[in-house]
Amino acid sequence: MPTDQELKDLVREKYGNIALQDKDTNASSCCGASCCSDEVYNIMSEDYTQLEGYNADADLGLGCGLPTQFAKIQPGNVVIDLGSGAGNDAFIARAETGETGKVIGIDFTDAMIAKARHNAEVRGFHNVEFRHGDIEQMPVSDNVADVIVSNCVLNLVPNKNGVFSEIFRVLKPGGHFSISDVVLTGNLPASLKEAAEMYAGCVSGASLKEVYLELIAQNGFQHITIQKEKAIIIPDDILEKYLTPEELAGFKSQQAGIFSITVYAEKPAESCCTPGSGCC
Question: Quick check: pTM over 0.85?
Answer without folding.
Answer: no
